[in-house]
Amino acid sequence: MSLNTAHLNGGVLIHAGEQILLFSEHVSIEWSGQNMGAFKGTKSGRIYLTTHRLVFNSKSPNDEMQSFSFPFITLSEVEIEQPIFGANYIKGKVRAQPNGNWTGEAKFKLTFKHGGAIEFGQAMLKVAHLVARGGFREAPPPYMPPQSQYYAAPPPAYAPPPQGYYGWTPPYQTFPDQPPQNGVFMTDAPPPYPGLPPQGYQGGQMPPQGYPPQQGVPGSAGLSRGQLLRLAAAARSAGPAARVSPERGAVCRPAGLSESTAARLSADAGLSARVYGTCW
Q1: Whole-prediction pTM value?
Q2: For 239-251, what is each residue's pLDDT tens digit?
Q3: How far apart are CA 79 and CA 166, in angstroms?
Q4: Cα dihedral sign, 15-19-23-27
Q5: 80 pairs with which residues across the strands?
Q6: pLDDT above 60: residue 170
Q7: CA–CA separation, 3 vs 40, rounded Å?
Q8: CB distance 158 to 178 below 8 Å
Q9: Which CATH class for the 2-138 domain?
Q10: Domain boundaries, the chain
Q11: Number of H helices, E strands in the chain
Q12: CA distances (Å), 59 to each of 156, 200, 275, in order?
């Protein structure tokens, strides 16, 4: 869906509120249907299944494809293959996101060198099914580089709840490893496409029809994605030191930013004009 938009400093770059469900160090990916140099040849790397997408990161710093992002709403024709000879693999088709550094469609073949293709593929299809139940199938918006600063992701981003999601538990026993703690980075921007619904809905129940899966993020005090984006834009206008506080629904006030300015920024984002003295 987007090319070279999901990596940073040798690790993976995810959105605020996005969680990594499964991770594997030992995969390879091959492409067909694209003539760009970045899609040529077999690429070895890591694969991440998140609440919103599949992400591939290359292990070679010289590869033209350093990362590739597959939001579930851009995938089709996904199948798990079990050949008589050779390793099992997942195949499918993905369509490009506008401004995603490539165009059109491409077919992929994802091979698991140390096993686990069946379990990973089933988990991937299960998450995609849960996401589709929300009823949101629109194409993703044009890709926009994150405007906020990057930071090391907190543990919930790569240590999902052991009880699983809505009556389903990912196959942690097959993929017990977690990404290195210094290899997961996050931005303040929420995902621009649907994913697993907020964790407030449990017990196997999905949100009511019409509830956008990406509308809120954990700890966002019920803010919509539009509110979060406006809040982030307001913080950016205050300068590089300002931060969004989604838990509080406001712009927190760094040194040098007056209370009146912070209050105005919160109000501009369409939120109550709450001001906090420090950033988290």
Answers
A1: 0.71
A2: 544 455 444 444 4
A3: 24
A4: negative
A5: 90
A6: yes
A7: 13
A8: yes
A9: mainly beta
A10: 2-138, 217-280
A11: 3, 14
A12: 24, 36, 43
